[in-house]
Amino acid sequence: MDDGPRRDLVEDVLKDMNVLLAQYMRALLVLSLFTLVFFSFYLSVTRVPYALLLAAIAAILEFIPMIGPFTAAVTILLVAGFSGYQHLLFILIFLGMYRLFQDYVLSPRLLSEGMELHPLLVMFGVFAGGELGGIPGSFLSVPVLAIARIVYLRLEKAHRAAELVRISQ
């Protein structure tokens, strides 16, 4: 048996992984943009000092799982508090509601769409990744699940093709 079918299989898997990682980065960028828009709007409307700067910081920190959003929330509350803003409880409620919306609605939908994984699988994958590997595990869990899916589907396709060849002979 020559290396042609195996090489084709590896090339197909690598091409799929390239597309998958690009879609993952796009989903993270969209999540970051949502954070920028929602935070800019809320912080501006409620007249929080440095609203656009704080929203931009929160959007950038969105790329770091768990610690990034927490750091953004603490930064926003500290800056608002030290600037004399009176309604810190409203900011805290907004941050909590936005985090719930993003973690349980927006993020699973965006990541599952690009990765072609069910939203519940994405959520459980992130939880499992966090338990097994901490922050890096959370960050890498969705791409690892999607890569495992790609490899499985490609191997399944190659196995079916080999069976067809064997049956036709």
Brief overview, please?
The chain is mainly alpha-helical.
Q: How would you describe this protein?
A:
This protein is an all-alpha fold and about 170 residues long. It has one domain. Helix content is about 85%, strand content about 0%. It is built from 5 helices and no strands. The protein has helices at about 5-45, 50-60, 65-80, 90-115, 120-169. It starts with a helix and ends with a helix.
Give the tags.
mainly alpha; about 170 residues
Helix content: over 70%
Strand coverage percent? under 5%
The coarse silhouette is elongated
Question: How many DSSP helices?
Answer: 5
| Radius of gyration from CA coordinates | 21 Å
Query: Topology as H/E string?
Result: HHHHH
Model regions low in confidence, pLDDT < 50 over at least 5 residues = none
Sheet of most strands: none
Number of structurally distinct domains? 1
Count of beta strands: 0
Mean of pLDDT: 87
Protein structure class: mainly alpha
How far apart the termini lie comes to 15 Å
Helix and strand topology:
Blueprint: H1 4-45, H2 51-61, H3 67-82, H4 88-115, H5 119-168
Helix pairs in contact: 1-2, 1-4, 1-5, 2-3, 3-4, 4-5
